[in-house]
Structures are given as structure tokens and as C-alpha cells.
Amino acid sequence: MTDYEALSRAYDIYQIKNVMGHHAYHHALGTHRQELDEIWSAREDISWGNNMGFWVGRDTMYAYYADAKAVQDEATLKLMAKANPKIEVRPENFQMGALLMHSLTTPLIQVADDGKTAQGMWYSLGQVTNAGPDGSASGSWMHERYAVDFIKEDDAWKIWHFFVGTDLGCTAGEPYAERKPQPRPENAEPDPMMEIMAALPKPTIAMELYHCKYGWHNEPHFPRPYATHTAELSYGPEKYM
Fold this sequence. Notes:
It is built from 4 helices and 7 strands; from the N terminus they run H-H-E-E-H-E-E-E-E-H-E. The longest helix is centred in the N-terminal third of the chain and has 27 residues, at 3-29. It has helices at residues 3-29, 32-39, 58-83, 192-198, and strands at 47-50, 53-56, 99-111, 117-131, 137-153, 156-171, 205-206. It has one domain (3-240): Nuclear Transport Factor 2, Chain: A (Roll). It is an alpha+beta fold and 241 residues long. It has a 7-stranded mixed β-sheet, covered by helices on one side.
């Protein structure tokens, strides 16, 4: 590798880290549509994956990742306004009382030999705090592994496939070792938030991709030197199609 090639590769990695920084702040602010517009690929086959499967395609991504988030925020705000009429239901108040951040640690980034794509992996130690309609708050810790395919478009790195494998999510202030599933009583009152979550778009490809019961296995694989992008190496759905 020449000095110029080494410098170019270092600059690629710097740009990719900035892309992920933008993602982290957009996610914290709930500005998912702006994120899709600014730092995601213009390709039709973009995807988001998690433990339950993949959401694939631009229309699906905007419906699930952007629009559904806004619907969820608005529905939550309406519940809060119902309990407190002083609260105004308007976009500026979306995520009122919410505080979340998924910090990025332990970056592993590998740019393909052909310079057209790259792969990155991070571990995220996150926290999510939501406000209840009665003014209460609930907080959770999230430990997740991110695996991301990037593609260069018009000399800029963009997110192509984004996979989030959740290792654990637990309520703040409760001993994790004592955590037990709490079955919902049959005669319980309808939970508006559960109804909202149930209405979210379902995965395009539904499958168990990741589960903490597997322990720390090598899937998704760590980024390693590679010549060019292939379906077998992908962090997206093409690997399973």
C-alpha cells in the first residue's frame, strides 16, 4: 500500500466514524427521517435488521424507521396531554420527557480493497428513558452489537445495511439477575402503548437473527480484510435470501 493509499484509507475510516456519529445523534433526537435523507444510501435495497428479522427497501424503511417513530411519538404525547391538558400536541413536543442515547464503543472498520464498500462493528451501551402519561418515568439499559455495511456514493460514505443485535435490555434500578417475565393478567385494562407497538410495520423477512441465549458467537462476523462486497459477507438480508 502506497502512502497515498494509506492516507485515503485513513480518511475513509474517519468519514465512516462521522456517519455513525450522525446516526447516534439523529437517533437520540428522534429525527429518523432526516437521518435517512442525509446519511443513508439512495439504493432501493437499504435495510434495518434486529433480533426479529429485516425491514428491507426504501418505502419500508421510511414507513418503519421514520414514519412509525413519528406516529409512536405523537400517540405517546396524546396520552400525556390527556392526563395533563397543559401539554400541547405538536411536533415540537414529540419525545417530551424522553431521554435516550446509544453510545458507540469499540469500533472495528474495514474498507474493501476496491474502495467501494466498507464494514463496521460497534458495541453500544445505551440508555432509554420514557415519560408516562401520569408524569412518571421508566428507564432501561440496552447492550447491543451494531454491524453495518457502508457504500460510497458520490464520494461520500452512506449506510447501506444496519443490523442491531440486542444482548440485553433491563429496567434501570432492578437487579438483572432477579429479572423474571411478568405475564399480563387476562382481565387487565388495554394498554395503549402495546396497541401502538403492535401496529408498527412487521419485518419484511421475519426470522430469529440474534438472541442473547446464543452467547458471544461470531455472527454477525467481525469485519475482516476483504476484496469486494458479496452476499455471503453482507450484514444485510441478501445473506439469507
